[in-house]
Amino acid sequence: MHNDIKEILLTTEQIEAKAAELAKQLEIDYADKKPVLLGLLKGSVPFIGDLMKCMNIPVQIEFMDVSSYHGGTASTGQVKILKDIDISVEGRHIIIVEDIVDTGFTLDKVIALLKHRGAASVEVVTMLDKPEGRVVVMEPKYIGFTIPKAFVVGYGLDYDEYYRNLPYVGILKEEVYMN
After folding, report:
1. How far apart are CA 76 and CA 68, in angstroms?
2. Beta strand 80-83 with 60-67: parallel, antiparallel or unpaired?
3. Can you give the residue ranges of every domain in the chain?
4. What is the CATH number of domain 12-69+77-147?
């Protein structure tokens, strides 16, 4: 797997330090709100784990499996909910935890759905932001790292369900996904 990586963008240590920094800001902003950390599967799993370990306020953890990629390297623009959350969000403060914000399609639909269901507030914390890929107007409130327009894997991010277990974020060599 490591041989398929063109360049390492972020190390484990950099990501964990940024997660701790973001967690402290979330603690301040949500000190008395008992927020729900809503991880979007599967990519958010390592990052949500890092965040929640560093948060010293009451939080609940929930997951949704939502996709607009369907196995490729580019968003299809069609969002599918494969697993919905198990709790009511009515009156709750929701923090969507993402591995990467790229086109914005998926988040736009999830945010609209949560607001429709009566969430008191909905914000986004993302490990990576790729604004050059944005098609929907949006900017996450909490951003770990802004990255260039490149196909990245590792630390939860995948290509065809592989590479999620790399301990860093790296740019995947084009020949891997162009075949």
Report:
1. 6
2. antiparallel
3. 12-69+77-147
4. 3.40.50.2020
Confidence of residue 150 (pLDDT cuts 50, 70, 90): very high
Contact predicate 47/54, CB 8 Å: no
Catalytic site includes residue 102:
yes
Q: Are 75 and 130 in contact (CB under 8 A)?
A: no
Q: Where are the beta strands (DSSP E) in the chain?
A: 5-10, 36-41, 60-67, 80-83, 93-101, 121-129, 142-146, 152-153, 169-172
pTM (whole model) above 0.85: yes
Place of tokens 């929907």: 136
Please, are residues 10 and 168 in contact by the beta-carbon 8 Å criterion? yes
Average pLDDT over residues 42-66: 96
Could you tell me which residues come within 8 angstroms of residue 143 by beta carbon, excluding any fewer than 6 positions away?
Answer: 125, 126, 129
Q: Which of 4, 29, 32, 102 is catalytic?
A: 102
